[in-house]
């Protein structure tokens, strides 16, 4: 009872509960530009009660949530079993007390002692029912706890997928995954362990207080309650004191995990530069800091356990002395002495565990808060209220006076205007950093523009749903990253549950079907982490096949053949031209030889379109494009003289 009161008072210390805002309140929006997951450890942003309020909808769902009625019924039934278990537990010592009095009558010399079989059976039954009801409670509530973990984790993952590309470019994957993992474990711990120790202990303390008061006098109840209050106050104070060490330990744990994951994700870079020792040394340095913080945490825990044991022992000794004095005075029996002893021992067990439970609650609230803090990050790009799906007729893409910058201090696109007619191909070329890839990101609406308008078939993409815009565009990126799954899974990702014949046709058009067939496991071949078992060209062809399978009316190729050799590039270019027939196509290119047949070529420089026209028109102009073309032709001629004219066999890397 005291622990729950302490939690409530601590939660309301800053402001009353009726002023608390919901978890997504705009007044608490975290800036996406400055957010890093590990920064949450620096301090609490919401009180304990706010964290609990954020969790309650997952334990007591709304009516429109599937299985809501079943979940609520399970919660109510579990609470009934909690009460039944504690009532049985509190009654058990009473039966034992009566049995002891029957076996030790006041005038033992003349009494005929009869075995109190009924009381012994009642004592055993009460002990059994106390355990049985607790197990029934756990079985009934299991689905509630697991469902809460499942739905809260899904809610966080759904929200993370709604966040902007800017957030995911800035994030630290290791710290982010640790936040979700710790939060998920904390929810499970809070609802399946802590909850079923807090409420039963509160109920048991109240029942013991009432029994001792009724059976003897109020002072026995007062002493037992005072022991509990002092114990809870001491536990609360020391836990608050230790909490900073827990946060420090969590922060260092996240940092170490991030360091390890980063080094493994960049395995090839580490090996290329021979920096294995550097990575291990840096990881060990952070783990050394974690070791110091963890040792401090364990040391303070030992100090708290000693203090808790002292409080319980003193309380037990005082009550036993009071009971012994009552026996000597003739106001109490041996059974009463036994009853007081049993009640204190019975209370000491949950109280000893209660210290762990309270720490677990506080630590779980910190971990849950950190996971729910991710929900405070507002999506940078949102659909307008009532936005309708994009209606694609011909697939015309139009940029009207578009201005954009990732950072206001460095503009990327400046008043850019162009139109890609339906079914035509427009290519974008220019130096690195000129804004070519940014055009693709803006078309996908990964970012919103600062000025101007981007439209598809006359519809501003800010006025329609993001999902419909992205469904209408198929993209082959410059750097293709695949899921650590089979080739079939990665190909069908564009159209889940696509029939095998459609997958094979797309693979054939991308010139990868024969290669897949040559593998021992065929389409079931695992591609490895980020597709590292495939060569760059093979990954690119998987991506091309995937976009062919999607069948979108608008295609975007961002350096789509940059990882291919010249021979394969020509083959795929021919297939891409075939696939692009009747589709609006945007090509971001570095090799100018791949876009010579484009209907329109836009040359970007310093965020502006400095030249536009067909390949022949741009050559006649003799500008930047013509100069770049001449240089590439010369480089290709030199390279052709220096290499053997053969096509290397492709294979899956071991």
What does this structure look like?
The chain is an alpha/beta fold. The protein has three domains: 330 residues, ABC transporter type 1, transmembrane domain (ABC transporter transmembrane region fold); 170 residues, P-loop containing nucleotide triphosphate hydrolases (Rossmann fold, 3-Layer(aba) Sandwich), CATH 3.40.50; 73 residues, Rossmann fold, CATH 3.40.50.300. 60% of the residues lie in helices and 9% in strands. It contains 19 helices and ten strands. The protein has a six-stranded mixed sheet with strand order 6-7-8-3-9-10, sandwiched between helices. It has a four-stranded antiparallel sheet with strand order 2-1-4-5, with helices on one face. The N terminus and C terminus are likely disordered.
């Amino acid at each position: 009872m005291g622990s729950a009161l302490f939690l409530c008072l601590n939660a309301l210390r800053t402001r009353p509960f009726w002023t608390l805002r919901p978890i997504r309140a705009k007044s608490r929006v975290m800036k996406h530009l400055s957010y890093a997951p590990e920064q949450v450890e620096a301090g609490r942003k919401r009180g304990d009660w706010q964290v609990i309020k954020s969790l309650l909808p997952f334990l007591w769902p709304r009516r429109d949530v599937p299985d809501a009625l079943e979940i609520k019924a399970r919660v109510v039934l579990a609470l009934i079993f909690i009460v039944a278990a504690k009532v049985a537990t509190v009654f058990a010592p009473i039966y034992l007390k009566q049995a002891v009095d029957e076996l030790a009558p006041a005038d033992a010399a003349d009494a005929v002692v009869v075995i109190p079989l009924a009381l012994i059976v009642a004592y055993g039954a009460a002990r059994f029912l106390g355990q049985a009801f607790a197990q029934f409670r756990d079985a009934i509530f299991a689905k509630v706890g697991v469902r809460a973990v499942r739905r809260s984790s899904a809610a966080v993952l759904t929200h993370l997928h709604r966040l902007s590309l800017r957030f995911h470019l800035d994030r630290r994957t290791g710290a982010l995954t640790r936040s979700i993992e710790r939060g998920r474990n904390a929810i499970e711990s809070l609802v399946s362990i802590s909850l079923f120790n807090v409420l039963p202990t509160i109920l048991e303390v109240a029942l013991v207080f009432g029994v001792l008061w009724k059976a003897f006098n109020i002072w026995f109840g007062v002493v037992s309650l005072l022991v509990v209050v002092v114990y809870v106050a001491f536990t609360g104070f020391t836990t608050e004191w230790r909490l900073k060490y827990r946060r420090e330990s969590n922060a260092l744990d996240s940092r170490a995990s991030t360091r390890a994951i980063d080094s493994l994700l960049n395995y090839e870079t580490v090996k290329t530069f021979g920096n294995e020792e550097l990575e291990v040394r840096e990881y060990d340095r952070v783990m050394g800091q974690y070791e110091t913080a963890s040792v401090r945490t364990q040391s303070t825990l030992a100090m708290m356990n000693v203090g808790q044991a002292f409080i319980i022992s003193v309380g037990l000794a005082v009550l036993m002395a009071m009971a012994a004095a009552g026996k000597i005075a003739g106001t109490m029996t041996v059974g009463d002495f036994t009853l007081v002893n049993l009640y204190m021992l019975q209370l000491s067990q949950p109280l000893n565990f209660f210290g762990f439970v309270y720490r677990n609650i506080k630590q779980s609230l910190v971990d849950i808060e950190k996971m729910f803090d991710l929900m405070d990050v507002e999506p940078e790009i949102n659909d307008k209220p009532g936005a309708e799906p994009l209606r694609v007729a011909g697939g015309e893409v139009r940029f009207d006076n578009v201005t954009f910058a990732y950072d206001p201090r460095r503009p990327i696109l400046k008043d850019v205007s162009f139109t890609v007619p339906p079914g035509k191909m427009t290519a974008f070329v220019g130096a690195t950093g000129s804004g070519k890839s940014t055009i693709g990101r803006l078309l996908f609406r990964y970012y919103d523009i600062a000025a101007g308008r981007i439209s598809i078939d006359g519809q501003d993409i800010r006025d329609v749903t993001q999902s419909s815009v992205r469904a209408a565009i198929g993209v082959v990126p410059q750097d293709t990253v695949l899921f650590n799954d089979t080739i079939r899974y990665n190909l069908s990702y564009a159209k889940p549950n696509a029939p095998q014949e459609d997958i094979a046709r797309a693979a054939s058009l991308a010139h990868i079907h024969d290669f897949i067939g040559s593998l021992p496991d065929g389409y079931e071949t695992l591609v490895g982490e980020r597709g590292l078992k495939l060569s760059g060209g093979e990954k690119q062809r998987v991506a091309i096949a995937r976009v062919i399978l999607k069948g979108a009316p608008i295609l975007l190729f961002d350096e789509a053949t940059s990882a291919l050799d010249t021979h394969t590039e020509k083959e795929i270019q021919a297939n891409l031209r075939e696939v692009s027939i009747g589709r609006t196509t945007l090509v971001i290119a570095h090799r100018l030889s791949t876009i010579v047949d484009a209907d329109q070529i836009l040359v970007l420089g310093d965020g502006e379109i400095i030249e536009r026209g067909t390949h022949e028109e741009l050559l006649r102009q003799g500008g930047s494009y013509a100069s770049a073309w001449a240089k590439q032709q010369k480089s290709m001629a030199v390279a052709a003289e220096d290499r053997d004219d053969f096509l290397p066999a492709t294979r899956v890397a071991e």
